[in-house]
Design brief:
Layout (H helix, E strand, L loop, with lengths): L13 E7 L7 E7 L2 E7 L5 E5 L13 E2 L3 E3 L6 E3 L14 E6 L4 E6 L3
Antiparallel strand pairs: 1-9, 2-3, 3-4, 4-8, 5-6, 6-7, 8-9
Length: 116
């Protein structure tokens, strides 16, 4: 499966295996602790995966619980929308960090995370 375009991690990127991709139902997201940060991973209905910081900058809403379509996630608390590929807000909120995420040959989610 192709994860599509994502932000490029810094030079000190490390990979983290998060487990089987099927732990996230199609069309939903789940939050994971990755290297001391919360990351929301989304599995789109076409099978591609995306990853963003898991906490909305507006009022710390749980981004993984948001509603998604092919291009954006909407925070469940105050309806701020974020682009799933870039993390940029389409409603004026601060952007979310985007992570490179993919599915490996064993169908596990793998996220690359650079040092903050």
């Amino acid at each position: 499966m192709n994860a599509g375009p994502m932000s490029v991690p810094g030079p000190a990127a490390t990979s983290h295996t998060l487990g089987p991709v099927d732990q996230i139902p199609l069309g939903e997201g789940r939050a994971f602790a990755v290297g001391g940060e919360q990351v929301a991973v989304f599995r789109l209905r076409d099978g591609t995966v995306r990853a963003l910081a898991a906490v909305c900058p507006h009022r710390r809403g749980p981004i993984a619980d948001g509603t998604i379509d092919r291009q954006q996630v909407i925070c469940p608390l105050h309806q701020h929308a974020f682009d799933l590929a870039s993390g940029c807000s389409t409603t004026g909120a601060e952007p979310l960090r985007a992570y490179r995420v993919s599915v490996d040959n064993e169908l596990n989610l793998v996220i690359e995370k650079g040092q903050v």
